[in-house]
């Protein structure tokens, strides 16, 4: 899902590029960080310049590329504690050789020198990339734990095709934002439930709804980016998420049990499209030679079950279809009055651009004091940001 909010505006990221074939991805990474508003300076080892040309990085960043340390003491300018230093030193890709140098304080390449200079007082993030046999080196795990102990953020690689490959550009950018965004939700323990649940008819069929989980995922990621301790309980969806703690619960019963299991959270965001009805499952496969009927029994509302167990604040989502603005708000207020919810977020999924599977939304937020806040049609990412802004300003709801 695209993010139309420039979350890194004014932040200076020093992108240290070392001699892995994965360096070819850094042109796209630099451009994406720029699209997020960041100022990006590329610092390359000599080995990296043999893989990707400095002209490509200069084009991607719009700034001169540092390939050697001169009398301008570039490492001190970017990694020191003087005015104008970097906000983040990002080593991507980080080879086993470079990781070893960082661990032992060796500074014989421009990237290693910048890291050694910055390590005591600036955020440093490394994204390892190497052949799998090197990734499985006996020293690797201990080395990574040492670097983590020093406060270095590690973005783990994807291990496939016998290689420890870079994560996606979107995932790396997510971790950069997590390192640099203000942490106004620090100390908040949140649980977000998102996506659809299913009701099994037999062993090969089920019924569900059209929810994709995009809205809830965006909220969970926004909370985590801003410092909250987040658990995301995700229904049956193919959508990806970068939230650190994710559990999948596909059917209604398991979703409900997972949500209410941890009643000690400070905040619950129920953006889940849980099944309103359950069916009696048949074993095996129902024959298709003739018709059959389903008996639908209403399910308990997850918010009702949760409210009995927790003192945390509960944000509920209410999806309506074909309802005018006034009716939408009044229904949200009725949901608030019946108890359980601390805040209700209502939308009309029948209107164009506001449905389950799209990337945009429009919502009406009804707070516990009756205040109504209209968040007009925009990306779900921006809606998530504005919702968390409301929560950050009014954590008492």
Structural features, described:
The protein is an alpha/beta fold and 397 residues long. The protein has two domains: 12-180, Flavin prenyltransferase-like (Rossmann fold), CATH 3.40.50.1950; 189-393, Rossmann fold. Helices cover 32% and strands 24% of the residues. The protein contains 14 helices and 20 strands. The chain has helices at residues 26-35, 46-49, 54-61, 74-79, 96-104, 110-118, 132-135, 140-149, 169-180, 214-225, 252-261, 302-307, 325-337, 380-393, and strands spanning 12-17, 39-44, 88-94, 124-128, 130-131, 153-154, 158-160, 163-165, 189-196, 199-200, 206-207, 229-234, 246-248, 267-273, 277-278, 297-298, 313-320, 343-348, 360-367, 372-379. The strands form five sheets. The chain has an eight-stranded mixed beta sheet with strand order 13-12-9-14-17-18-19-20, sandwiched between helices. Helix 1 (26-35) runs parallel beside helix 3 (54-61) and helix 5 packs across helix 8. The longest helix is centred in the last third of the chain and has 14 residues, at 380-393. The model has no long low-confidence stretch (mean pLDDT 94).
């Amino acid at each position: 899902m695209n993010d139309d909010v420039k979350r890194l505006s004014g932040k200076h990221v020093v992108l240290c590029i070392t001699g892995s074939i994965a360096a070819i991805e850094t042109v796209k990474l630099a451009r994406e960080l720029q699209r997020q508003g960041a100022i990006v300076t590329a610092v390359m080892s000599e080995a990296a310049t043999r893989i990707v040309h400095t002209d490509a990085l200069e084009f991607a960043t719009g700034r001169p590329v540092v390939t050697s340390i001169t009398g301008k003491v570039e490492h001190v300018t970017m990694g020191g504690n003087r005015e104008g230093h970097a906000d983040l030193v990002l080593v991507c890709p980080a080879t086993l050789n470079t990781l070893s140098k960082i661990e032992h304080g060796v500074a014989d390449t421009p990237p290693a020198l910048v890291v050694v200079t910055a390590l005591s007082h600036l955020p440093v993030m490394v994204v390892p990339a190497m052949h799998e046999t090197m990734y499985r080196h006996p020293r690797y795990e201990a080395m990574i734990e040492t670097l983590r102990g020093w406060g270095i953020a590690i973005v783990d690689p994807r291990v496939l095709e016998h290689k420890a490959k870079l994560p996606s550009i979107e995932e790396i950018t997510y971790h950069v934002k997590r390192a640099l965004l203000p942490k106004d939700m620090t100390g908040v323990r949140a649980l977000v439930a998102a996506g659809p649940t299913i009701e099994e008819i037999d062993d090969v069929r089920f019924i569900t709804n059209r929810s994709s989980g995009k809205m809830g995922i965006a909220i969970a990621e926004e909370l985590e980016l801003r410092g909250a301790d987040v658990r995301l309980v995700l229904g049956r969806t193919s959508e990806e998420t970068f939230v650190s703690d994710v559990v999948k619960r596909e059917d209604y019963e398991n979703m409900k049990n997972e949500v209410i299991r941890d009643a000690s959270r400070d905040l619950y965001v129920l953006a889940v499209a849980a099944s309103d009805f359950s069916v009696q499952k048949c074993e095996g496969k129902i024959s298709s030679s003739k018709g059959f009927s389903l008996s639908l029994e209403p399910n308990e509302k997850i918010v009702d079950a949760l409210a009995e167990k927790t003192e945390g604040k509960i944000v509920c989502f209410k999806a309506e279809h074909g309802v005018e603005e006034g009716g939408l708000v009044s229904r949200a207020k009725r949901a608030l009055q019946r108890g359980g919810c601390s805040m209700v977020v209502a939308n009309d999924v029948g209107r164009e651009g506001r449905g389950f599977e799209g990337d945009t939304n429009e919502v009406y937020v009804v707070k516990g004091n009756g205040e109504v806040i209209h968040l007009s049609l925009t990306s779900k990412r921006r809606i998530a940001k504005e919702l968390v802004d409301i929560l950050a300003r009014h954590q008492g709801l």
